[in-house]
Specification:
It holds the Pfam family EamA. The chain is mainly α. It is built from 15 helices and no strands.
Length: 287
C-alpha cells in the first residue's frame, strides 16, 4: 500500500510539471492509455472474460462519468496548487461518502458517524481557508474533485455486487481513454521526446500504483491497509519541497490532521459495523 501511494505521488509530480505545458485532457489521455500496459497484466491474471463482462451498464456509465470528472479536477489542481495541498483535500473523500450514502444509498448513519462527518467538514474548511468569504478557485476545484471521487466510490459499492474488479478497471480505463481522446484534436500539443517519455510514465506509474493498491486490499484486511493511504501526504510533501520548494501552510497540517482523525474513525466504525467497504475500495481510481 505504501509503495502504491509512492507510485501515485510520482505520477502526481509529473502531472504537476507537465500541467504547465499541456492541457489537462491530454494528461488524462496519456494517464489512461498507457495504464493499459501494467493493467494488461492484472487483466491477464484474472481473465479477459471477466474484464469484458458487463452486467450493469448504467452503473458503469455513472462510475465512468464521475470518475473522469474526478480525475480531471485532480489533474487540473495538481498543475496549479502545491501537491500536498491537493492530496490533503482529497482525504475528505470518506467524509463525503458517508454524507452522500444517506440520500443515494438509503444507508442509516448513526450519531457517531454524523459527528465524524461534521468534524471532517470542519477540517476541510480549515484546509481551503475561506478567509473573508473568498475561496481559492483552484482549491474549490480540488474539493469538487473530491466530491466526484466520493460519488465514484458510492457507484463502486453498487457495482461491487454484480461486477468483477477486472471489469470495472477495464471499462473505466477504456472509457477514460476514449473520452479524453475525443478532446485531443482541440487541445493537442506535440511533445518533444523528453516530454513524451514523461507523459508515458504518467500512465505506467498510475497503472502500477493501481495494481499495488488492488493487491494490498486483496491480501490485507481493509481496516489495516486503508489507513496507510494517509502516507500520500508524506510523499506529496517530500516531492513538492524537493522540486518546487513547496511547504504546506499551518492550515493544511491542522486541517489534514482533523480530516484524518475523522476518516479513521469512520473507517474503523464501519469495520466494526461490518459494512461492505472492502470491495469498493479495491476498485477505486482517484487519479
Amino acid at each position: 500500500m505504501v509503495a502504491s501511494l509512492a507510485f501515485f505521488a510520482l505520477m502526481d509530480a509529473l502531472v504537476k510539471d507537465l500541467g504547465t505545458r499541456y492541457s489537462t485532457m491530454q494528461l488524462v489521455f496519456f494517464r489512461s492509455l498507457f495504464a493499459f500496459v501494467p493493467l494488461g497484466y492484472l487483466i491477464y491474471r484474472t481473465g479477459w472474460a471477466d474484464a469484458i463482462k458487463i452486467n450493469n451498464y448504467t452503473g458503469h456509465a455513472l462510475r465512468i462519468l464521475v470518475g473522469v470528472a474526478a480525475m480531471f479536477c485532480f489533474f487540473y489542481a495538481f498543475a496549479h496548487m502545491p501537491l500536498a495541498d491537493v492530496v490533503a483535500i482529497s482525504f475528505a473523500a470518506p467524509v463525503f461518502v458517508v454524507a452522500l450514502s444517506v440520500p443515494l444509498l438509503g444507508e442509516k448513519v448513526g450519531p457517531k458517524r454524523w459527528t465524524a462527518v461534521l468534524i471532517g467538514f470542519a477540517g476541510v474548511l480549515i484546509m481551503v481557508n475561506p478567509g473573508a468569504g473568498i475561496l481559492d478557485p483552484v482549491a474549490v476545484i480540488a474539493l469538487i474533485g473530491t466530491v466526484f471521487f466520493a460519488l465514484a466510490m458510492i457507484a463502486l459499492r453498487k457495482l461491487g455486487r454484480t461486477e468483477s474488479g477486472a471489469s470495472v478497471v477495464f471499462t473505466f480505463t477504456l472509457a477514460c481513454t476514449a473520452l479524453s481522446g475525443l478532446a485531443l484534436p482541440f487541445v493537442w500539443i506535440t511533445p518533444d521526446l523528453q516530454d513524451l517519455a514523461l507523459l508515458i510514465a504518467i500512465g505506467l506509474l498510475g497503472g502500477i500504483g493501481q495494481i499495488f493498491m488492488t493487491f494490498a486490499f486483496k491480501h490485507g484486511d481493509v481496516a489495516v491497509v486503508a489507513p496507510f493511504e494517509y502516507t500520500a501526504i508524506l510523499w506529496a510533501t517530500l516531492l513538492g519541497f524537493v522540486f518546487w520548494g513547496e511547504i504546506p501552510g499551518l492550515n493544511i497540517w491542522v486541517g489534514v490532521a482533523v480530516v484524518m482523525l475523522s476518516g479513521l474513525f469512520i473507517l474503523f466504525r464501519e469495520a466494526n459495523l461490518k459494512l461492505p467497504r472492502g470491495h469498493a475500495r479495491r476498485l477505486q481510481t482517484k487519479r
